[in-house]
Amino acid sequence: MPGPTNAERGRNVRARLLAAAKELIGEVGWNAVSTRVLAERAGVRSGLVHYHFESLQALLRQAALDEMSHMLDATASLLVGAASAAEGVEAVLYELDRYNGTDPASLLFTEAYLAATRDALLHERMSGLMTGFRTSLAAALARSGHRAPEDAASVIMAVFDGFVLHKGLDPELSAARVAPLLRRLTSTDRNGAD
CA 110, 114, 115, 116: dihedral to nearest 10 degrees? Predict the structure, then answer.
């Protein structure tokens, strides 16, 4: 039986490099990831980093964007599958409750946000991901009859980001504490908070 093709080996190396980058960004910080350390973690020769990616920065950028895209797609599906926008927002909040601010995904996202302040391309692409999610959220709110869906979606996104960020500083912060406030914000009751 023939072994893997060059294309299959290349995809495997790329996948290993991206997985190693995701781990290392959270473990040591964006700026501390070196080509050598990354290659060692991935179990490949360091020259393959630059063979498969135009630069170390491009590899780190892709790893962060892939992880963010995956997480946003998964949470957007919670909005789509919910009976109402309020229930969808609450489901997203409870999903985010599993991030404690010190877990690998939280650290990766925090590092990516910081890196985006210095990397215009990362900033642009992260902004695009966030805009896409915010648009989905605003559409869900509009379908539920919210009077200000775009404004509410912007505030809810800020709450989601702040919630994950602050959980690293306040372990007592929980979805159960924040959910009642978000319920009021997502309410379509004309006597509600919208």
Answer: 100
Instruction: Express each pLDDT in 8-48 by its tens digit.
Output: 888 999 999 999 999 999 999 999 999 999 999 999 999 99
Q: Residue 194 falls within a domain, yes or no?
A: no
Give me the number of domains the chain comprises.
1
- Provide the residue count of the chain: 194
**Cα angle: 125, vertex 160, 138; to 5 degrees:** 70
**CATH classification of the domain holding 68:** 1.10.357.10
Q: What is the pTM of this model?
A: 0.86
Query: Within 10 Å of residue 123's Cβ, how many Cβ atoms?
Result: 15
- Looking at residue 17, its amino acid is L
| Encoded tokens for 171 | 């372990």
Question: Contact 168/101 with Cβ under 8 angstroms?
Answer: yes
